[in-house]
Give the backbone structure.
Amino acid sequence: QVHVVESGGGLVQPGGSLRLSCSASGTILSWYAMAWYRQPPGKERELVATISNGGITTHVDSVKGRFFISRDNAKNTVSLQMNSLKPEDTAVYYCNRRVTPFSWGQGTQVTVSS
């Protein structure tokens, strides 16, 4: 059974940075296209960024130029570098396989507030 674990969230002031990390047991993440999602308070979960198993990345317009998805195959991790954070980035962040998701992890809370 695959377990995905997200970490690295926290409280940060507007304009600050955070780096989220995603690890998994029971599988090799480099086999799959992976993605970061987020669920803002009271809203549906939404896609933030994707990375193919070949390393090609996409980012939604609202985070383009501020967030950067990457993967470290040697460590079996996928990361999301978040810069110039805004209050509207406040959400629980999740990572998962882009197609046919694994069971969802607990996510990691990111709160952007002064």
